[in-house]
Design a protein that fits this description.
Chain lengths: 221, 222
């Protein structure tokens, strides 16, 4: 079978898998950003209990494997009465894992906003919330955006693991097709190229665009 | 709902500990491959031979932006299609070693860029050969700035070894899965796997920080 016949026959399954992978990526990215901001800010809270909670969360999710977390959420959590549908379990696990890595980026970026900015906000009598939202965070976003680009690629790669709990993403589809046709080079090769294209020609340009937009908004373009 | 069984825990613990040995072995072997191969990848990108530089650069970029689990499948299943049968261990070590070699080559690149240009000029004026310049002058100085990244990826490769379970390498996750499907109990094996990972990766990360500080002090870099 030529490669084009192969694509003709299995192209739609690969395509539907790619769509699921993209949906998973978007959903887990949103979750990861939300968790990262929350946990990153909590890491710097004056209250020790709040700080401790965020630290424990970050260390647990960074100290174990994504695959372990995924299996735990999918197989063990139901024993505690929380049953997640596999698609949900998949993006929640990826989002929570990458959110823990993101939290450190958020913290690092906030700490690297120049001290004068904090003092200026204080001198203008801004409330702590307003200072954070209007002055510190926008500058921190600009600092951490390049690192988020790398993190989002890690996240895309992480979504491939959800195939192991049978979410019908790209990885799962090519695994199935390989199981029936044994055309491993074609199936896995195609998937490798699709992941590469998603990372290099969608995520990277999107992040570059976001950086440019943020720069302009901050008047630094 | 919450019924943690201690007798079951102690019954499966020895099996999990044996599997932890395999996990550590896989991580160690994979890392050894990655450290050496990563150096080859970064040096290949610095040769004056343009086609080689471009190809290696793109290959590193490609490996870094595609999922490791897919690469493991690719290496394991594509071989037999062309008549090369690889054992799960061999395929797994090739895949994980190559994947991390790509990451480490970027770490080395960063380290090499930290070496001041004057060092190259000094080596040239002393008439040192290229190999001698690299091994006696440049690489020793590129090492300290690379250590942090190298340490992170050592912990990283350890945490990625569970992916080898998909092709049947009998490491920790594979064993926990097997116990789960034999006994229909997932709570204890999966939770223990998580705890074992934490018990190894957190102290390792801390030790790496200490080691890094020690090397810096030794080399008089503050």
């Amino acid at each position: 079978m030529s490669y084009f016949e192969f694509l003709g026959q299995y192209g739609d399954r690969i395509f539907s898998g790619t769509l699921i992978t993209m949906a998973l990526t978007v959903l887990s990215a949103l979750l990861a950003v939300a968790i990262a901001v929350a946990a990153g800010l909590m890491r710097m809270a004056p209250n020790m209990a709040v700080r401790g909670l965020a630290t424990v969360y970050i260390e647990i999710f960074r100290g174990t494997s994504l695959l372990v977390q995924l299996y735990w959420i999918f197989f063990v959590l139901p024993l505690f009465g929380i049953t997640l549908e596999k698609f949900t379990a998949g993006f929640v696990a990826v989002g929570m894992n990458l959110g823990a890595y993101g939290a450190e980026l958020v913290r690092g970026a906030i700490l690297s906003v120049p001290k004068g900015q904090w003092e200026a906000a204080l001198a203008l009598n801004m409330s702590p919330a307003k200072r954070m939202i209007r002055v510190i965070l926008p500058q921190a976003v600009l600092i951490m955006l390049p690192s988020w680009g790398n993190l989002l690629i890690e996240l895309l790669k992480g979504t491939a693991l959800v195939a192991l709990i049978s979410v019908a993403d790209l990885m799962f589809q090519v695994k199935q097709i390989n199981g029936t046709t044994f055309l491993s080079a074609q199936t896995f090769g195609t998937a490798l190229i699709i992941y590469y294209v998603l990372a290099r020609f969608m995520i990277t340009p999107f992040m570059r665009w976001l950086e440019r937009v943020m720069m302009r908004k901050m008047g630094r373009a | 709902m919450f019924d943690w069984r201690w007798d079951f825990t102690f019954q499966i613990l020895p099996r999990l500990i044996v599997a932890t040995g395999n996990t550590l072995l896989a991580a160690g072997l994979g890392y050894a491959i990655a450290v050496v191969l990563g150096l080859a990848l970064v040096l290949a990108q610095r040769t004056p031979f343009r086609p080689l530089t471009v190809v290696v650069r793109e290959a590193v970029e490609f490996i870094r932006s595609t999922p490791l689990v897919l690469q493991i499948f690719f290496v394991f299943y594509v071989g037999p299609q062309f008549g090369i049968r690889l054992s799960p261990w061999t395929a797994g070590m090739i895949a994980i070693g190559l994947h991390y070699a790509a990451y480490l080559s970027e770490v080395y690149r960063g380290g090499l860029e930290c070496v001041p240009k004057g060092q190259w000029e000094a080596a040239k004026s002393l008439n040192l050969s290229t190999a001698r310049t690299y091994f006696r002058v440049i690489l020793p100085q590129a090492l300290p700035p690379s250590l942090a990244g190298m340490g992170n990826y050592l912990v990283g490769i350890f945490k990625d070894t569970p992916m080898l379970s998909v092709i049947g390498v009998a490491e920790l996750m594979h064993t926990a899965n097997a116990i789960g499907s034999e006994t229909y109990r997932f709570l204890e094996p999966f939770t223990l796997v998580g705890i074992i990972f934490l018990c190894i990766s957190l102290p390792t990360a801390a030790l790496i920080r200490l080691f890094e500080a020690w090397v810096r002090r030794k080399l008089g870099m503050g």
